[in-house]
């Protein structure tokens, strides 16, 4: 028996128990802590947390199990389990019961002088959040958090600034990336500075400048890289977290050969996804997914959504920017969209749209994540 390993019931092999528990979702594992003292000790062991993390990394199921969102009016943080949504029912209007919405105390090391909470990203069950000039990492499952040093004040004129959060598997450490677009008055052009913070050192490093302006939308993490869209040229830009290099990626040929608007990048079921507004049908948005990461010809149009048919509000020319794809159902039977104060399920081969309302108020940001047992420095 390993040092520190707890004794478990003689009727079951401890290896079998560990094997089963390490493959379960984090929320399920944490519920098993109440079975007995031995199981609680086992689940809190560092080696078990590492084993569960390894299973999470190599697991075939990369789909999120929860949705996190911020209330626009009071910046309160809420979450709900995707399983709690009746995605299989046929009712067009479904009210979300209050019991499925969980309110969180988000002021974990964050400044309370601001009221503009932003969700910067999620990785391995950790949520990266910003409130003014305070940044924290937080694990909702283990209820632990770490404060992150905010970058030093910039001396140049800042046009846009964005962050991205990811994991470097090579050094087993988390990294926060900041891309700041400055206006170069001498050259009369934009240049973006790339800085990286490594969690273990909690210090920022300047890497280099790149000729892109990726705006202020947080980067989306897919396949160990963070992704943005250049706001002026509609280029797809990615930053490899491990190699710390920036490069351009190919978009769908359709987007290259046709005029499209409002191109945005998302992560869907572990895949890189692009959403754009079609100019041929002004009220449509299209969802494209790269089935095999890095393979240009694997881009596939998964959904074409008529905004005029959305049940949550009437169509407005700019409203495609407020649509946020969150989750693709198994077998691609539908896609869950976040918009304003509701969630909308679009079923292309079924009954059209299903509206889940009751998110209390306008939502300023949505984020999906999959729970983990990863522990951070501080406890709530």
Automatic annotation (TrEMBL):
Coiled coil: none annotated. Pfam families: F-box (PF00646), FBA_1 (PF07734). Residues 12-52 form the F-box domain. PANTHER family: BNACNNG10540D PROTEIN, F-BOX PROTEIN CPR30-LIKE. This is F-box domain-containing protein.
């Amino acid at each position: 028996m390993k040092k520190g390993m707890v004794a478990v019931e003689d009727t079951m092999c401890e290896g079998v128990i560990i094997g089963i528990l390490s493959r379960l979702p984090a929320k399920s594992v944490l519920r098993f802590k109440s079975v007995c003292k031995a199981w609680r000790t086992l689940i809190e062991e560092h080696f078990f947390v590492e084993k569960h993390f390894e299973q999470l990394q190599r697991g075939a199921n990369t789909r999120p199990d929860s949705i996190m969102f911020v209330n626009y009016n009071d910046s309160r943080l809420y979450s709900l389990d995707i399983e709690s949504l009746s995605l299989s029912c046929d009712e067009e209007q479904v009210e979300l019961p209050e019991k499925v919405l969980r309110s969180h105390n988000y002021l974990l090391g964050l400044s309370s002088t601001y009221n503009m909470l932003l969700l910067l990203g999620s990785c391995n069950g950790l949520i990266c959040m910003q409130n003014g000039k305070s940044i924290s990492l937080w694990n909702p499952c283990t209820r632990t958090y770490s404060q992150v040093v905010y970058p030093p004040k910039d001396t140049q004129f800042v046009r846009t600034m964005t962050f991205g959060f990811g994991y470097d598997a090579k050094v087993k450490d988390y990294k926060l990336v900041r891309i700041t677009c400055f206006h170069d008055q001498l050259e009369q052009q934009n240049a973006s500075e790339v800085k990286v913070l490594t969690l273990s050192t909690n210090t920022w490093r300047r890497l280099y400048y790149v000729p892109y302006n990726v705006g202020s939308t947080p980067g989306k993490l897919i396949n160990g890289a963070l992704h943005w869209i250049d706001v002026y040229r509609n280029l797809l830009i990615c930053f490899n977290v491990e190699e710390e290099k920036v490069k351009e990626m190919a978009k769908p040929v359709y987007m290259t050969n046709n005029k499209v608007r409002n191109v945005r990048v998302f992560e869907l079921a572990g895949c890189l996804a692009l959403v754009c507004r079609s100019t041929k049908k002004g009220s449509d948005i299209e969802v494209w997914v790269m089935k095999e990461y890095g393979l240009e010809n694997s881009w596939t149009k998964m959904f074409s959504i008529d905004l005029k048919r959305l049940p949550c509000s009437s169509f407005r020319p700019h409203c495609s920017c407020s649509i946020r794809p969150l989750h693709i159902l198994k077998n691609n039977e539908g896609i869950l969209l976040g918009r304003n104060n509701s969630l909308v399920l679009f079923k292309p081969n079924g009954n059209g749209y299903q509206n889940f309302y009751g998110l209390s108020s306008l939502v300023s940001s949505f984020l999906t994540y999959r729970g983990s047992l990863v522990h951070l420095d501080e406890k709530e």
